[in-house]
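#struct-help
A.M.: can someone run this one for me? Single chain, 98 residues.
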Amino acid sequence: MSAACSEEHRLLGELKARRPDLEACIPALEAAYRALRGVFVKGGKLLTCGNGGSHADAMHIVGELCKSFERKRPLRPEFAARLVREPGGEQLARHLET
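D.P.: on it. Structure tokens below:
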């Protein structure tokens, strides 16, 4: 099993632990991941579009996917220190960006 594959399984395991109600969606998530990965490995790209509310959703998805692309945007140290004291805060402080 490759490192990427084990990371994918770890993330899906965490998702299932946090949101057992999404168990039925796991096969579709895996299929979507494999499809996108195949496109990206071949040098392709993901295009999003929409009209009205769907446009807002498309822009939001792009923002989430690209937020660290140009540069990392770490939390301010004082905010990260406060966040760590909250439940789940250590993980949030490690992964959230501004």
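A.M.: thanks! Helices lie at 3-18, 26-41, 53-66, 77-84, 89-95.
D.P.: also worth noting: Residues 1-45 form one domain.
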